[in-house]
Amino acid sequence: MSIVQAQNLSHQYGSYQALDNVSFEIQEGQCFALLGPNGAGKTTFVKIMLGLQNPKSGSLNLFDQKAGIAEARAQIGYLPEKFSFYPYYKVKDTLEFHAAVSGISKSQSGGEIELAMQKLKITELANKKLSNLSKGQLQRVGIASLLLGNKRLLILDEPFSGLDPIGIKDLKDLLRELKKSNITLFINSHILSEVEPLCDHFGILNRGQLLVVGEKNQLLKGKSLEDYFSEIVQ
Fold first, then answer.
1. 151-180: per-residue pLDDT in tens?
2. Span 1-75+152-234: which CATH code?
């Protein structure tokens, strides 16, 4: 089943062509990486996925529904590059808020929050204010918030940013677990070495145009993702 369907998607900011006739699909359960240099159009694509931007032409459907409508948004979890929330909130308060927004009852949210904190190894931070956390710890709180509710698509914007080597390994292990649960992962990252072992499909954008898209092994043919990327984006 196609979770994401982009068809002839285009968008401009004045005379600047951010996306130019982009078409591809992401199937349920895939881990898909959208790659490209700065200014390639990745952020614009994510904004359209989240319903924050309407395309000038073409279409983007999520779960066979137009991106941005409430039914589609309810099935999406989004982690920005820099997770932020009210700095005076404690970690557990923050997760309780996200659980409520996700429509989880209070009787159910306690167990889900405890499990999410255990998976991200932040249980000991439960009563700490966000203002007292490091960037890496904040990132873990943000990822924990994605595990609340029955999300079918997780959009991760530079998820490895700010994490130490142990945090990166823990996140990779968690994402591999999520893949086994048939959750679809959409990763926007410039750290190609971290993306390569995780994602089974990827696309490369440059100057708004989709240069390649497909299954990782078929595209790479034994090359590293970094070498392949360098050859494609010149």
1. 899 999 988 877 788 878 888 888 888 888
2. 3.40.50.300
